[in-house]
Amino acid sequence: MTALTLSTAGAATLRADALVVGVAKAADGGKGLVVAPGAEAVDSAFDGKLAAVLETLGASGAEGEVTKVPSAGGLKAPLVLAVGLGRAPEKDEAYDAEALRRAAGSAARALTGVKKAGFALPVEATEDVSAVAEGALLGAYAFTAYQERGKDAKGPLAEVVLLGAKPRDKAAKAAAERALAVAEEVNRARDLINTPPNDLTPEAFAAVVAAAGKENRVKVQVLDEKALAKGGYGGILGVGAGSQNPPRLVRLAYTHPDAEKTLALVGKGITYDSGGISLKPAGHNETMKCDMSGAAAVFAAVVAVARLGLPVNVTGWLALAENMPSGSAVRPGDVLRMYSGKTVEVLNTDAEGRLVLADALTRASEENPDAIVDVATLTGAMVLALGNRTFGIMANDDAFRTAIHEIAEEVGEQSWPMPLPAELRKGMDSPTADIANMGERMGGGLVAGLFLKEFVGEGIIWAHLDIAGPAFNEAAPYGYTPKGGTGSAVRTLVRLAERAAEGDLG
């Protein structure tokens, strides 16, 4: 993992392999390039002509644009990397935290193979310190566990030195420590999502969680297939019935003596989704190792909360199964008796995520938390509605849905509130069972949310995050987002836990 330090050293005197500075388009619609605050010493080393030099090299200040220029001996660092921040803010306004986060991420990605880089970006407020540190650490991520690494292989940026934030400033130090904990846990989720499904079975996933629990004072309980059968978890067992790798339900629990609120997080953990008997066609199953992204997000968030020592109680529920076709697999037309006692007619075995989540939601509800949030790569319909970078938020409480949307925007995760239209519930009526696992095709993401709502305990505030779009990036990396697993929703869940610790759940 990339190291993070705060330094009082000036940018001109820092001994590093590279210096990162920000540049922006002139404010008020003006023309030309401006050097962002934090880089004054670097600009002086260029005789005040850094912007002109960068413009000559084609820099425009566009968000995420990276331009490299030799320091020509005017600095201790041999290389200056200028990263675009977009339009400069108006007078008396500050740079947007997400713009700083993305810029730091773009810079870190461009510094692959570099040992040490100083980041001289604008850090006028504590929020800026957090954003730059977080962006740099997330941008420096690389998944190389399955690649041969020769002696000449370039690894991610090894050390980030944050300039302009005083190490003895308690607020700045706390912001940096929080950023490090959160970024490391996001990257833990990314590692799990990127792990091939032949290695990350439900049993293997549960073992990873158990080991992390011991390291971070988090209690972990694992229900294997025998315990699931004894407990009547028909949804999880049904989905896992076709695989030689049996399912698991994992409970994580972090408690704090001063906690006044309890938050339950539930994650879909389909370690590979073939679709089952309703088999996915070629072109739709190659990335289905990512169908456990919700469980990875919940796991990482609980560990992050424990590392931060937040005064809130948090439980995490990971519903882990592998959805495969075989002679023992659930068939379309089968009826499953869920943990709640309700029966579900399975019309499509590729609508399996809602089945494992239903059991976990019921079980989580038994502990009567103040709120439940489930996270899942649940429907392609949500991707069609919101695209590849935005997750949908549904809830049984409008204020809670709004609060999560605001939190997601605050931490830089794109999201959008979605409705739960009551009229769509009728489409899941079954002549055989209490409910079917499919309904109307149009609005399929909303139908899935309505199905889950049926399994939430009465009187409990609940929200559902459908992260099917942003969980796995198949396109080129951008900002602090890599190709592959992204760790979507981890930062939102951690901030929600912080709000709960403050007594505010919307």
UniProtKB/TrEMBL annotation:
Sequence positions that bind Mn(2+) 1: D273, D350, E352
GO molecular function: aminopeptidase activity
Record keywords, A-Z: Aminopeptidase, Cytoplasm, Hydrolase, Manganese, Metal-binding, Protease
Reaction catalyzed: Release of an N-terminal amino acid, Xaa-|-Yaa-, in which Xaa is preferably Leu, but may be other amino acids including Pro although not Arg or Lys, and Yaa may be Pro. Amino acid amides and methyl esters are also readily hydrolyzed, but rates on arylamides are exceedingly low; Release of an N-terminal amino acid, preferentially leucine, but not glutamic or aspartic acids
Cofactor(s) this protein cannot do without: Mn(2+)
Chain ranges of the Cytosol aminopeptidase domain: 348-355
Its EC number(s): 3.4.11.1, 3.4.11.10
Principal location: cytoplasm
Active site residues of this protein: K280, R354
The record's free-text note on cofactor binding: Binds 2 manganese ions per subunit.
Residue positions binding Mn(2+) 2: K268, D273, D291, E352
Enzyme class per UniProt: hydrolase
Localization terms from the record: Cytoplasm
Gene3D superfamilies, sorted: Leucine Aminopeptidase, subunit E, domain 1 (3.40.220.10), Zn peptidases (3.40.630.10)
Job description of the protein: Presumably involved in the processing and regular turnover of intracellular proteins. Catalyzes the removal of unsubstituted N-terminal amino acids from various peptides.
HAMAP family: Cytosol_peptidase_M17
NCBIfam families (alphabetical): PRK00913.1-2
UniProt record similarity statement: Belongs to the peptidase M17 family.
Cited PANTHER family: CYTOSOL AMINOPEPTIDASE, LEUCINE AMINOPEPTIDASE-RELATED
Protein name: Probable cytosol aminopeptidase
Organism of origin: Streptomyces tamarix
